Design the sequence.
């Protein structure tokens, strides 16, 4: 059987509004390196065959010049422009990948992804066609009504917080995103890639184990936590 080809899309085309910093979030320094470079390096060192980096509109040349020059990233085959919404950026990444059987979609804002998580996502997608990294929630989660009153306490044992990577057979992801792009009103209420595939129908999405360290750097305090976790990882 022909060896399966696995691609990865690293998303770094967001505006980072909730970070409230003058330097865009993906370029903020974490352990002296731009945020997005951490996950790029981890994917480079994983069994992935090809990586596409998605950056903001008009940013491709600057990113190549200022952040990627001299970086040993042999698997990086394209740096492309994303779009207004995350799904536009994912779609740009899907179009830029060359003939992949599987695709892992990862937030560039999750610098603490590990080789183990990437490998679990690869094993999961080969077996189930669609899988996402996540962890059981630690807090009690309540559904709150419009007036701010607790309506229902959800069964914690069945609640997972969702992370990336999210991995799909390329054709499954591509047809789901083609379907969204045909009529963009279909993206209303969608908050992750798995929902695109779920709403398109036909595939069940399998959960795989991420890590409590695989946080998304969203607000300023997340950067402090990410730095502390990274220092511990490096034995500092
Ligand atoms: N992303 C993207 N294209 C967009 C929006 C988001 O590539 N149009 C990426 C971000 O760069 C990030 C990931 O998707 O790596 C997760 O998004 P989020 O944490 O929400 O980042 P931002 O959208 O940049 O932040 P904010 O929502 O605070 O503006
Ligand atoms: Mg966002």
Sequence:
């Amino acid at each position: 059987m022909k060896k399966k080809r696995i691609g990865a899309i690293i998303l770094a085309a967001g505006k980072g509004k909730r970070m409230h910093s003058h330097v865009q979030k993906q370029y903020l320094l974490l352990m002296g390196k731009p945020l997005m470079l951490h996950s790029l390096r981890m994917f480079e060192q994983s069994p992935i065959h090809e990586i596409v980096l998605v950056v903001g509109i008009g940013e491709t040349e600057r990113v190549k010049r200022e952040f990627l020059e001299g970086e040993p990233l042999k698997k990086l085959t394209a740096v492309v422009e994303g779009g207004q919404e995350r799904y536009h950026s994912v779609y740009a990444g899907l179009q830029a990948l060359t003939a992949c059987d599987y695709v892992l979609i990862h937030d560039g804002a999750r610098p603490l992804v590990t080789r183990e998580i990437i490998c679990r996502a690869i094993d999961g997608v080969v077996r189930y066609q669609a899988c996402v990294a996540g962890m059981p929630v630690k807090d009690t989660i309540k559904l709150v009504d419009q007036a701010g009153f607790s309506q229902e306490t959800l069964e914690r044992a069945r609640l997972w917080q969702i992370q990336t990577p999210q991995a799909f057979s390329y054709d499954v992801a591509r047809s789901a995103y083609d379907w969204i792009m045909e009529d963009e009103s279909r993206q209303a209420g969608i908050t992750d890639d798995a929902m695109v595939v779920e709403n398109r129908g036909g595939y069940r999405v399998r959960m795989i184990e991420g890590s409590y360290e695989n946080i998304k750097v969203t607000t300023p305090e997340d950067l402090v936590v990410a730095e502390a976790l990274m220092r511990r990882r490096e034995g500092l």
